[in-house]
UniProtKB/TrEMBL annotation:
Source species, domain of life: Bacteria
ABC transporter domain mapped to chain residues: 10-266
Molecular function GO terms recorded: ATP binding; ATP hydrolysis activity
Entry's family note: Belongs to the ABC transporter superfamily.
Keyword tags: ATP-binding, Nucleotide-binding, Transport
SUPFAM superfamilies reported for this sequence: P-loop containing nucleoside triphosphate hydrolases (SSF52540)
GO biological process: transmembrane transport
Organism classification: Bacteria, Bacillati, Actinomycetota, Actinomycetes, Micrococcales
InterPro entries: AAA+_ATPase (IPR003593), ABC_transp_ATP-bind (IPR050319), ABC_transporter-like_ATP-bd (IPR003439), ABC_transporter-like_CS (IPR017871), P-loop_NTPase (IPR027417)
Protein name, entry field: ABC transporter ATP-binding protein
Length: 285
């Protein structure tokens, strides 16, 4: 796989994605002709109305959508392509997905609330390493896990704890440490601060920004939370019903809103809403 130094780590070129028809449900086009790129070391924020295709894009870029069983609703690239770290995702063979996912960290939606309840923090963070090499040196693994825990600013005393013993914000940090344990070149984070107490939300957002600067990965961060986007992303892309309706710096997008959804967004933010999720902008503004 080519590294970020050779070009843009994420390139979407007229990407269209469809969920095929299943039983009585007709086929659904979730993404329509998206084109944009993420530069080396850039964090791109991704905003959009409910059902606009943000998670579909996140799952696709993370490689997990391509790995899903057809019975779970596997989306297909029906037009254009997404190229991540030089790897075209259109028609990528399944056997290549483990190597692909090695380079692309993924923090799924609800990651904090879906950590395995019967594993310790150390086991959860170390699992991606052992999944790839079950004979990985135990001492090296312990050192790597402890480094990651320290990296997300949690005390080593948490290593032997179980998820239920942690707060939501602490669980999210564990999920983040796990997503970064393989040292990915790209991070895809889907709502990394959703469901986290307001008081620690900004701390988690700052932490993502700090980790990104320390480890210089490129990232796509889905969030409805403007302070979170401001502290992590210079540019944002806005989706509405599967289409890209705006892209630019946060101020460029909000100061000159062209699309009705972006206008509604900018108006709502002017009215003092920081978390866009609070709003019922609806998919057909
Ligand atoms: N497995 C699936 N099978 C069929 N359609 C799906 C599947 N998953 C999502 N969709 C549809 O694709 C569209 C985009 O969904 P997606 O979850 O990507 O949107 P989103 O922007 O992440 O929404 P939210 O903000 O509510 O999480 C929606 O219309 C959704 O109903």
């Amino acid at each position: 796989m080519r590294g970020a130094a050779h070009g843009y780590p994420i390139v979407l070129d007229d990407l269209s994605v469809e969920y095929p028809a299943r039983g009585p449900s007709p086929a659904h086009v979730a993404l329509h002709g998206l084109s944009f790129s993420v530069a080396p070391g850039e964090v791109l924020g991704l905003l959009g109305s409910a059902g606009s295709g943000k998670s579909t894009l996140a799952r696709l870029l993370a490689g997990v959508a391509l790995d899903a069983r057809a019975s779970e609703g596997r989306p297909l690239i029906t037009g254009g392509d997404a190229t991540v770290l030089g790897q075209s995702l259109r028609g990528i063979p399944k056997r290549k997905l483990p190597e692909y996912q090695f380079h692309v960290g993924y923090l799924p939606q609800d990651a904090a609330s879906t950590l395995p309840a019967d594993r310790t923090v150390a086991e959860i963070i170390g699992e991606p390493i052992l999944e790839r090499d079950h004979r990985y040196n135990a001492r090296a693994l312990a050192t790597r896990v402890a480094t990651m825990l320290d990296g997300v600013r949690l005390p080593l005393g948490k290593l032997e704890m179980y998820p239920y013993e942690l707060s939501g914000g602490q669980r999210q940090r564990v999920a983040l440490a796990r997503a970064l344990v393989l040292g990915p070149s790209v991070l895809i984070a889907d709502e990394p601060t959703a469901g986290i107490d307001l008081t620690v939300r900004d701390v988690v957002a700052q932490l993502i920004g700090e980790l990104q600067r320390e480890h210089t990965f490129s990232a796509v961060i889905i969030s409805h939370d403007l302070p979170v986007l401001r502290s992590t992303a210079k540019r944002v892309a806005v989706l509405d019903r599967g289409r890209l309706v705006a892209i630019g710096t946060i101020d460029e997008v909000l100061d000159d809103p062209q699309h009705p959804y972006v206008k509604a967004l900018a108006g709502a933010l002017d009215a003092g809403h920081a978390v866009i999720d609070d709003l019922d902008l609806g998919p057909s503004v």
